[in-house]
C-alpha cells in the first residue's frame, strides 16, 4: 500500500465515524491500518544481495538498517562491497531473525581482500575498534581487510 492510501484509510476511519458509532469492527480496522503503517515504516531487510556503495551508501548505512530492522526471508543477506578503503567504525548489535541459514555476509565484490579495506582511527580506549560485534551472531566478513589506526594516548 502506498503511504497516500494509508492516509486515505486513516481519514475514512477517523473522520467519517462518529465516536458513538465505533464498534469492534471499526477498532479492528484501525488496528490493521496501524500495523500496516508501522510495518511500512520499519521494513526488514529481505534475503538477497545488496551493494555497498549502491543499495547502501556505506557500511554504516547497512549496519544501521540491520540494527534497526533485522532480517526477513529464507536465506542470507549479502552485502557485496566495491573495491576501496572505507573509513568507518561499525557496531553490529543483535540482528532480529538472524540464524544459521538467515545470516549476514559482508564480502568483497572482487574477491580480493587487498582491494577492500575497512579502517578506523581510534582516538582512545573507548572507541578502539573498527568492527564490533555487540551481541550479533551469524555475521561473516569474506575477503575484506580490516585495519585499525590508533595513536598512543
Question: What would you say this structure looks like, in words?
Answer:
Helix content is 27%, strand content 35%. It has three helices and nine strands. β1 (45-52), α3 (59-69) and β2 (71-81) form a beta-alpha-beta unit. The longest helix is centred in the first third of the chain and has 18 residues, at 24-41. It is globular and about 40 Å long. The model is unreliable at 1-19 and 26-41 (pLDDT under 50).
Quick structural gist:
The chain has 153 residues and is an alpha/beta fold.
Write the topology of this structure.
Layout: H1 3-15, H2 24-41, E1 45-52, H3 59-69, E2 71-81, E3 84-87, E4 90-93, E5 104-108, E6 116-122, E7 131-134, E8 139-142, E9 145-150
Can you give keywords for this protein?
single chain, 27% helix, 3 helices, 153 residues, alpha/beta, four-stranded parallel beta sheet, three-stranded parallel beta sheet, globular, disordered N terminus
Main beta-sheet strand count, sense and barrel state: 4 strands, parallel
Average pLDDT rating: 80
Order of helices and strands: HHEHEEEEEEEE
Residues in helices, as a percent range: 25-40%
Structural class: alpha/beta
Radius of gyration (CA) equals 21 Å
The first-to-last residue Cα distance is: 54 Å
Shape estimate: globular
Using DSSP, what is the number of strands? 9
Percent strand:
25-35%
The helix tally amounts to 3
Low-confidence sequence ranges: 1-19, 26-41
Strand order of the largest sheet: 1-2-5-8
Amino acid at each position: 500500500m502506498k503511504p497516500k492510501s494509508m492516509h486515505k484509510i486513516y481519514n475514512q476511519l477517523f473522520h467519517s465515524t462518529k465516536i458513538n458509532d465505533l464498534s469492534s469492527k471499526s477498532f479492528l480496522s484501525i488496528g490493521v491500518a496501524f500495523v500496516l503503517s508501522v510495518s511500512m515504516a520499519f521494513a526488514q531487510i529481505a534475503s538477497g544481495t545488496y551493494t555497498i556503495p549502491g543499495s547502501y551508501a556505506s557500511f554504516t548505512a547497512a549496519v544501521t538498517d540491520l540494527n534497526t530492522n533485522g532480517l526477513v526471508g529464507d536465506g542470507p543477506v549479502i552485502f557485496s562491497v566495491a573495491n576501496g578503503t572505507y573509513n568507518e567504525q561499525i557496531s553490529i548489535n543483535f540482528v532480529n531473525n538472524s540464524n544459521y541459514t538467515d545470516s549476514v555476509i559482508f564480502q568483497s565484490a572482487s574477491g580480493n581482500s587487498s582491494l577492500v579495506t575497512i579502517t578506523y582511527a581510534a582516538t582512545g580506549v573507548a572507541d578502539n575498534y573498527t568492527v564490533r560485534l555487540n551481541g550479533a551472531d551469524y555475521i561473516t566478513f569474506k575477503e575484506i581487510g580490516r585495519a585499525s589506526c590508533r595513536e598512543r594516548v
